[in-house]
Amino acid sequence: MIKKMIVMLIMICITGASQATMIATPTDRNQLYSVLERADVQQQLRAHGLSPDQAKARVAAMTDTEAAQLAAQIDSLPAGGDPLGALISAVLIVFLVLLLTDILGFTKVFPFTKSVK
User: Fold this and answer.
1) How far apart are alpha carbons 85 and 92 in whole angstroms?
2) Are 101 and 107 in contact (CB under 8 A)?
3) Which CA distances in Å does 18 have to 12, 13, 65, 109?
4) Residue 9 to residue 69: CA distance in whole angstroms
5) Cα within 13 Å of Cα(28), Cβ side
6) Looking at residue 70, what is its pLDDT?
7) What was the pLDDT predicted at 68?
8) What are the φ and ψ backbone dihedral angles of 109, each rounded to 5 degrees?
9) Which of 4-8, 22-26, 99-103 has the least mean pLDDT?
10) Taking Cα atoms as reference points, which of 68, 81, 62 lies closest to residue 31?
11) pTM, 2 dp
12) Using CA atoms in the order 60, 62, 68, 72, what is the torsion angle rounded to 10 degrees?
């Protein structure tokens, strides 16, 4: 029994570890091409001195692993937010914090609150 285990361990060590990599599927490249077709992306490419055709050629020249990684990064990126929404959220958070401190009696900012103290 011990001999079999030793032989199995030696075989595992000799064969080495297997390695998994990402392989780009046609949908990954199609996703990259569809992103390059968007007007706002093409405008940004031109602003950085790159034509959309050059960008498509670079996507075509990518390895499968690179295309899959880039497609995964695009999927994980947050959508662009508007600054007005962030400003409204910040004002709302400040208001709620001040309201809570007024209710708890630490501050007296709003005249319509009654302190619990």
Assistant:
1) 11
2) yes
3) 10, 11, 17, 64
4) 34
5) 18
6) 86
7) 84
8) -95, -45
9) 22-26
10) 68
11) 0.47
12) -90
Whole-angstrom Cα distance, residue 34 to residue 37? 5
| Residue 33 in tokens | 């091409």
What is the per-residue pLDDT across 12-68, written as a single tens digit (0 to 9) for each? Answer: 656 655 555 555 566 778 888 888 898 888 888 888 888 889 888 888 888 888 888
> Would you say 67 and 59 are in contact if contact means Cβ atoms under 8 Å apart?
yes
Encoded tokens for 29:
């490249």
Question: Between the CA of residue 9 and those of 1, 12, 20, what are the distances in Å?
Answer: 13, 5, 21
For the segment 5-15, the average pLDDT, to the nearest whole number, is 64
Q: Tokens 């055709």 map to which residue?
A: 53
